[in-house]
Design a protein that fits this description.
Length: 827
């Protein structure tokens, strides 16, 4: 038991911690509000970035299902060794595995689909769902919120059609009504009864919102035929992935023996269900790269903390006498260093709380932007305990930098000399070359970052510029597909039927009184488009041009008329062009870039490979295409003229592939419901997703671009703030340390201007050096346009203004010093 009046201490060798030290650290936050605000916000920003990135890596590299014994939930795929990828047509194999595998319980399968859901109010909307085995619900052990889940009897032939819906669908389409149970809805071509509602967060097998029974007619299933299927289950008690793999290998050997042609190069693989996003191939390299990127965030934190340490060191100049007295009274250097480090830890702790809060908010916002339907259901907005621990390690790392660097410097005092002269405690503290390098570096980083961030804002705004250029607010768009719900139709007959349905939808839309035009294309204006390398046929009289790059867009009849552009040379596509497909139309930028002043009509080109260097397998035999027309540039305008090059190929939508529909209509948003209804009336299996005005297409990409550029701006602003406060601290410290000298010089008649130049010469040197270094870095990154050069000059001007403004307060103080008062200062 401690004696009365003594303070509680925790000891670890020379390391002694007193609760008084912590209290002093808290008081220092209030005593220096400027340092507290700047230090907290900048450190919090760096900690938040590092934490958010680490959590993202954790979620995608160490995924975990939110169920009991998640590691025992597995998936089974047929791996095609010849093609180096899974063969998803494993429905026949699933029927064999289901009967013969003993090492896996609750073995089931799912076939994902997108079908039109029609409610009694006649509202039509496509829904992502799955035909799934009833065992999936036992596997996930999630009871329904309402009603029941699917059962084995629902999978029997002749059973009444039933459907289970997800929480989000229940809330959005049925207003969270409890009476939804027993209600009939139309799903594609079938009417089903809602028998259950699953709780929030359930989206098995990936992110589905609706489930129907998986019914398999074994008489119609053959090896390596049918739809894509995912197979899942739970390892039986005592079984392992290795034992399950061995059992499946035995079954696969029997199947290959009975049917060697179908099972050539095919082997089942058992893997954990929630697999890392990166596996095989280049995964090790990519993981090392991601780890390196994480190191960049740690480096950013170190840079920020070194800057904060500059401010702390300047603050410590005012505490020189206190430290001297404590040293004279017996405090060891280590003890004082520990106290100063604890004060830094208090500051870093506040920054950690703010940083974790920012990371949590940013993570939720990021997942909202990506969209829950684009992510597996096991990805949520929580921060794992490993991420919190990582954030704490970052906090300790930052606190060590902020505390140790200034502490070691301010404790290097000659106690005897300092006690004889109180100002000696301050005069021995100087900003050396290290601190000068820090300030030069932060100015350089600011100058280098501002142009990149500003240029990024212009690039992010490019989408809006494209949209405005074609009047995108007049168009309604949708992603359209026709699926074979039973996957049993003859391929040729299904393709012919789909072609007729697409034509019928286009005809009906053009007959609508509010519709001006309608067309299909694989990519629409304002969408980003891959570039392809092309080769010109010199045999047709064209001079050798080498390989050029151009955007390729596949369009249906009426594409140019729909977007109000015109053919400036040659002709538009005709009906026969959509049958042969050996012609194309290019825009003016393409014609100028490839042929210069020559007439492009009649010239032939060949599409060689895409922008990744892969051969273009979508064009049969890399055939030659004849240019039959030149169209005005529109839709894909980019800052560089050579990037505007585009070529258009005739194309009709085909069965099983999603294509884009564009409708020019008076009121796009009001017409959306009628568009869905028209497509459903043409064919109930025709699903329209992402029905939205063209002005909103690519909005998520634009939002992500704005977010990335927002981070760049935030980094630039943080460094700018640190630069300003660091220079201000330097100048304030310089004035404080030279108060007596300034007074003497003023008393002897020195001109104020000369004194100001002497005091601020070093600061101006640091700002100027930082500007030059930053400009050099920006130039190395690339200044390919006049706009970028102007942005760099503006950044230099901003940094100079900020630096001089930071000097303004110390400058005013230096000029207002009364010589008589200054001479009273001990010297």
């Amino acid at each position: 038991m401690s004696a009365p009046g003594t303070r509680k201490r925790h000891r670890l060798g020379w390391f002694r911690v007193s609760w008084l030290d912590v209290k002093v650290g808290v008081r220092m936050l209030a005593r220096y509000p400027g340092l507290t605000l700047v230090g907290t916000l900048t450190m919090a920003f760096a900690i938040a970035l590092g934490t958010l990135y680490f959590e993202g890596l954790h979620k995608f590299e160490n995924p975990r299902l939110p169920v009991r014994d998640a590691t025992r939930v597995i998936s089974i795929v047929d791996w095609d060794a010849g093609k180096g990828r899974p063969d998803e047509q494993a429905l026949y194999d699933f029927t064999i595995w289901r009967d013969q595998v003993k090492t896996v319980d609750d073995l089931g399968a799912a076939i994902a689909f997108v079908r039109n859901l029609v409610t009694p109010d006649e509202r039509v909307e496509p829904v992502e769902g799955a035909a799934i085995s009833a065992s999936a619900f036992a596997l996930m052990a999630r009871p329904p919120l309402l009603g029941r889940t699917l059962m084995a009897r629902d999978e029997q032939a002749g059973a009444s059609p039933v459907v289970v819906i997800g929480y989000a669908l229940w809330k959005a389409r049925f207003g969270s009504e409890v009476s939804v149970l027993g209600r009939s809805v139309t799903l594609g071509t079938e009417t089903a009864t809602i028998v259950g509602v699953m709780p929030e967060g359930f989206g098995f097998p990936v992110s589905q919102r609706l489930w129907v029974p998986l019914r398999i007619d074994r008489s119609t299933v053959a090896p390596r035929t049918g739809p894509a299927v995912s197979v899942f289950g739970r390892l039986a008690p005592g079984a392992s992935i290795q034992s399950a793999q061995a059992e499946l290998d035995t079954i696969a050997a029997r199947l290959a023996s009975a049917n060697p042609t179908a099972y050539k190069n095919l082997r089942p693989r058992v893997t954990p269900y929630a697999k890392p996003i990166l596996e095989g191939g280049d995964a090790p390299f990519v993981k090392r790269l991601l780890t390196l990127v994480n190191g960049i965030f740690v480096l950013l934190l170190a840079i920020v903390c070194v800057n904060v340490a500059t401010l702390v060191f300047a603050r410590s100049a005012t505490r020189g006498w206190e430290i001297t007295v404590r040293t004279a009274l017996g405090a060891t250097r280590g003890r004082i260093v520990v106290q100063l480090c604890l004060e830094a830890l208090v500051l870093a702790g506040v920054a950690a709380v703010v940083g974790l809060t920012l990371a949590k908010v940013a993570l939720r916002w990021t997942l909202d932007v990506i969209g829950p339907r684009s992510l597996p259901f096991w990805i949520d907005d929580s921060l794992s305990w490993t991420t919190v621990l990582y954030a704490l390690l970052l906090t300790v790392f930052g606190a060590a930098i902020v505390g140790i660097l200034p502490a070691l410097r301010v404790t290097k005092l000659n106690v005897q000399e300092a006690l004889r002269n109180e100002s000696g405690a301050r005069s021995t503290l100087r900003f050396g070359g290290f601190w000068t390098a820090v300030i030069v570096a932060q100015v350089a980083i600011t100058v280098a970052f501002l142009p990149r961030a500003a240029n990024g804002v212009f690039d992010a705004n490019r989408f809006q510029q494209r949209a405005d250029g074609i009047g995108a607010d007049r168009y309604l768009t949708a992603s359209v597909a026709i699926e074979d719900p039973d996957h049993t139709s003859d391929a040729a007959a299904f393709a012919a039927r789909a072609r007729l349905r697409f034509d019928e939808l286009e005809r009906r839309l053009r007959a609508e009184p509010d519709v001006e035009q309608a067309t299909f294309a694989d990519r629409l204006p304002v969408m980003d488009q891959s570039k392809f390398q092309i080769e010109v046929d010199t045999a047709a009289g064209a001079p050798p041009t080498g390989l050029r790059r151009s955007r390729r867009v596949r369009v249906s009849d009426g594409f140019f008329a729909t977007f109000g552009t015109s053919i400036v040379a040659g002709r538009d596509f005709g009906p026969l062009d959509f049958e042969t497909g050996r012609v194309l139309i290019v825009n003016q930028a393409f014609a100028h870039d490839v042929f210069g002043d020559r007439n492009p009509i009649g010239q032939r080109i060949r599409i060689v490979r895409n922008e990744d260097g892969d051969d273009d397998s979508t064009v049969a035999s890399q055939a030659w295409y004849e240019i039959v027309g030149v169209v005005r540039d529109f839709g894909w305008q980019l800052p560089q003229p050579e990037e505007q090059s585009a070529m258009y190929l005739p194309h009709q939508p085909v069965a099983g592939e999603r294509t884009n529909l564009a409708v020019r209509v008076r009121d796009p948003e009001a017409f959306a419901a009628r568009l869905r209804k028209a497509a459903f009336d043409v064919d109930p299996t025709m699903s329209l997703s992402d029905v939205q005005p063209l002005a909103q297409v690519g909005g998520d990409d634009a939002t992500r671009s704005w977010a990335l550029n927002g981070v760049a701006w935030a980094i630039a602003v943080v460094v700018l703030l640190l630069s300003a406060t660091g220079i201000h601290a330097l100048m304030s410290f310089a004035v404080t340390r030279r108060t007596r000298e300034i007074g003497i010089r003023l008393a002897l008649g020195a001109r104020p201007g000369r004194i100001v130049i002497d005091i601020f010469r070093r600061a101006l040197f640091q700002i100027g050096a930082g500007v030059l270094v930053g400009s050099g870095v920006a130039a190395l990154w690339g200044l390919g346009s006049t706009r970028q050069i102007l942005i760099l000059l503006a950044a230099n001007g901003v940094m100079l203004v900020v630096g001089l403004t930071a000097c303004a307060v110390p400058l005013k103080r230096a000029l207002s010093i009364d010589p008589t008062e200054a001479l009273r200062v001990d010297g």
